[in-house]
Write a structure and sequence with these properties.
Elements lengths: L1 E7 L6 E4 L5 E4 L8 H14 L6 E5 L5 E6 L4
Parallel strand pairs: 1-3
Antiparallel strand pairs: 1-5, 2-3, 4-5
């Protein structure tokens, strides 16, 4: 499954908001430095979709706020 994700780093609290079009807005506490925000994003999405972290991949937008995430559901 693929999801479009808009990331908002340096937020006061972590949360995931589902938008009307099916995309997600994710608020992260981590700053966008040295991949910390990407690591936190992967962990949060793995918890939300109840899959191991290795099943969550950032397909595009590694250094962008707009990302395309692939979540493997083959368990």
């Amino acid at each position: 499954m693929q999801k479009k994700v808009k990331v908002k780093p340096n937020s006061k609290q972590q949360k995931i908001e589902e938008q009307a079009d099916g995309s997600l807005t994710v608020h992260l506490k981590s700053p966008p430095v040295d991949g910390k925000a990407n690591e936190e994003l992967i962990k949060l999405l793995a918890d939300k979709f109840d899959v191991p972290k290795s099943y969550v991949t950032i397909k595009s937008g590694l250094s962008s706020r707009q990302k395309l995430i692939e979540i493997s559901t083959d368990i």
